[in-house]
Structures are given as C-alpha cells and as structure tokens.
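<instruction>
Derive structure tokens from the sequence
<data>
Labelled lines for chain and fold
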Amino acid sequence: MTMSRTRTCRGAAVSLATVILAMLVAVITPRADGADVSMSVSDRRVYVGVPFTVSIVIGNYRRYDAPAMKPIDGLTLLSGPSESTSSFTQIINGQITQRQTVTLSYQFVAGSPGVFTIPSVTVSADGEEHQTPPVRITAVKSEIGGHVDIVGDADDVEAAIELIREREPQVVLLDVHMPAG
C-alpha cells in the first residue's frame, strides 16, 4: 500500500484560478462597443509634388479586412498600406480593459493644384461594415518649388558650421536663437 501526500496552498490556487478565469472571460466575452474606424490626413493643405499621408485607424477590433484604396483623380498613390499596430491591456481590481488599434498608412502626391476629395472608405471589422467620412485636401503649388534644395539641417551652431564647410551652399538660413550660438 502506497500513501502519497499532497500539499495544497489554497490561497494561491484560488488566486491563480481567478486570474485564469479573468483571462478567459476577457478573451471570450464580446465587447459592448464595436470597432471604430476613422480616416485622417497628415495635412489638409499639401504641396504639389510633395508626398502626404492618409491614415485609416481601426480600433477596438478582433479581426478586420484591409480596405481597398480606390484611385483618386489628380492624386497618385505612391505606397501603402503600411501597417502599424498597438495594443493596450489594463487590469484594475480584476476588471480587464483591452484595446487594439491598427493604423494603415498610404502615401499620396498631388500632380496639380486644386481641391481633392479623398472618398469615404469602407472597412470590414468584426463582421460589420464601417464607413469613414470623406476628407478634403487642398493642393497648392509651392512658391519655391523646384528652385530650392535643402542640403542640410543642424541643431546647433557647431553642426551648422560643419555642414556649411562640407556642403558649401549658395544660401544659408540660420536661426538667430540657435543653441550654442
């Protein structure tokens, strides 16, 4: 006859069971609020020939399908989507709050001056269709576009002097309040 002894630590077992249960509830329980989708541009006034970014942010989702960006007259799609994700988990007094966000970025460039409308985009997230409002931008021709090349940028006087000696620019613009000046 074999006897075995088992030790249990009841408090630790309850705590571990509570944590596992809370994690399962967080994974299994659907969120009360659904996914949210928005669209923004890096600037509403852009320069002809200078790239700008259109971002679509999808938050509070479990699964999404990347939207297809339709061609826009007068704008050229240079790249995209590039994807960046972030997640947030907070546990306070056993209450778990989770949020996951993905940002899809597209680079565009305007070929001529004018007002352009980036049409609404439909995103499927968690089985539901979400539509962004359209965004208007104004493309203007730069007054110095094509005539000026920026060949350097410095944070202090020593770095500026080094760049000037190295690159020998025709014109130098300096901040009179530059550090170490």
About this structure: The mean pLDDT is 80. The first strand starts at residue 36 and ends at 41.
